[in-house]
Backbone:
């Protein structure tokens, strides 16, 4: 048996195993009850963005007036972009970042009017929000080493998969499937510059794709979206946040199942949770065409309905 034949057999076997796993897991069963009690009832709106082409959505954030999404070009022919939307997630324009770096997490520092964006090397870069709206790509802080030694992916490389800002601190996490995962908190100074010397790291969960903070009825929640492969459901997890907690890897307050391939999350001006979905994976992932059909590019969820829901299935 030659090498080409072996490769064909291997690929076919892998496809069969993946199909079997997805079917047995009952993935993507929104229509027949898997998500009905919580996920379906909490949906406020669903939005698809036309003309993405080979671009794949990753992260999202809001400044209260506009929403921002990051996307990279899977064909590797185009620069990464930041997509500007209004508060109803209607498309306004795409902003060219002038770089082909795989960007992912994005957050708005409302205290210093900065938009922070993470890249595939564990660094984060800040842009003045007003400049960015004008299409001016002029970093205020360039490629700050947010990952350091604390945030690594499975390959041991520096990684910042998700990013958010809250109460004078930047929070970041890496995506891992088996390596120990961490959540890193970094305070920023009066000029908005991260103070890496005062960083604090706690244990975190695997498969983290997005994180956000939300205050509901005076309770502070840390919300995390997790996903791994198109064959498995995404999960939205709520933690009651407390500075004294050293380990977020094991216990959570509530969780909700969602369609596969959820990426970043962000709160909009209504305090609703917006899920950014990697729906364009259909263009490059053979499995996505079989199992990933329900989720829109952006799914807006009522955060109060979720936190007041006691049925998760």
Residues:
């Amino acid at each position: 048996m030659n090498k080409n034949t072996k490769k064909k057999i291997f690929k076919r076997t892998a496809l069969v195993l993946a199909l079997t796993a997805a079917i047995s897991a009952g993935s993507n069963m929104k229509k027949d009850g898997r998500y009905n009690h919580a996920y379906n009832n909490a949906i406020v709106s669903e939005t698809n963005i036309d003309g993405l082409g080979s671009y794949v959505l990753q992260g999202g954030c809001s400044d209260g007036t506009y929403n921002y999404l990051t996307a990279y070009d899977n064909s590797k022919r185009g620069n990464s972009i930041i997509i500007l939307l209004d508060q109803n997630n209607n498309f306004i324009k795409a902003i060219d970042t002038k770089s082909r770096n795989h960007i992912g997490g994005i957050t708005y520092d409302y205290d210093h009017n900065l938009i922070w964006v993470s890249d595939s090397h564990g660094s984060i870069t800040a842009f003045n929000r007003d400049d960015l709206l004008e299409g001016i790509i002029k970093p205020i802080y360039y490629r700050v080493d947010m990952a350091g030694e604390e945030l690594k992916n499975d390959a041991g490389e520096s990684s910042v998969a998700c990013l958010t800002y809250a109460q004078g601190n930047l929070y970041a996490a890496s995506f891992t499937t088996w390596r120990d995962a961490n959540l890193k908190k970094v305070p920023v100074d009066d000029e908005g510059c991260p103070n890496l010397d005062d960083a604090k790291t706690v244990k975190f969960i695997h498969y983290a794709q997005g994180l956000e903070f939300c205050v509901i009825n005076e309770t502070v929640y840390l919300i995390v979206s997790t996903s791994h492969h198109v064959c498995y459901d995404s999960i939205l997890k709520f933690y009651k946040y407390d500075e004294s907690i050293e380990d977020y890897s094991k216990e959570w307050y509530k969780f909700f199942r969602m369609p596969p391939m959820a990426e970043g999350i962000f709160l909009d001006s209504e305090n609703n949770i917006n899920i950014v979905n990697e729906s364009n994976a259909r263009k490059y992932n053979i499995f996505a065409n079989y199992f990933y059909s329900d989720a829109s590019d952006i799914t807006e969820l009522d955060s109060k309905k979720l936190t007041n829901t006691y049925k998760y299935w």
